[in-house]
Specification:
The chain has 111 residues and is mostly beta strands. It is 0% helix and 52% strand. It has strands spanning 3-7, 10-12, 18-25, 34-39, 45-51, 57-59, 67-72, 77-82, 91-97, 100-101, 105-109.
């Protein structure tokens, strides 16, 4: 059964970093277009970043220069490196692709 599982969230102080993982099973991630989304408290689901199978990426303006999406095809896993985190980055982060969506991982940025 194909699925996506996120991990790596947690509590971090403003200015800190976290690296989220999105582990795929049941399909080959390298062939898929993948996205990261986030659900901030009281807000609609927001698209954050895109990773294409050809290596191209794109980001929402609010995270450009701070977040980087990457893949490890040998591990069938996608990552989201988040630097210079701000309190407004607090959200549940989810990955999606190949018609699937994970359950998300909580990121809390607070002092």
């Amino acid at each position: 059964q194909a699925r996506l599982v996120e991990s790596g969230g947690g509590l971090v102080q403003p200015g800190g970093s976290l690296k989220l993982s999105c582990a795929a099973s049941g399909f080959t991630l390298s062939n898929a277009q993948m996205d990261w989304y986030r659900q901030r408290p009281g807000k609609d689901l927001e698209w954050v970043a895109f990773s294409n199978s050809d290596g191209s990426t794109s980001y929402v303006d609010s995270v450009k220069g701070r977040f980087t999406v990457s893949r490890d095809n040998a591990k069938n896993t996608m990552y989201l490196q988040m630097n210079s985190l701000k309190p407004e980055d607090t959200a549940v982060y989810l990955c999606a692709g190949a018609g699937l969506q994970g359950q998300g991982t909580q990121v809390t940025v607070s002092s």
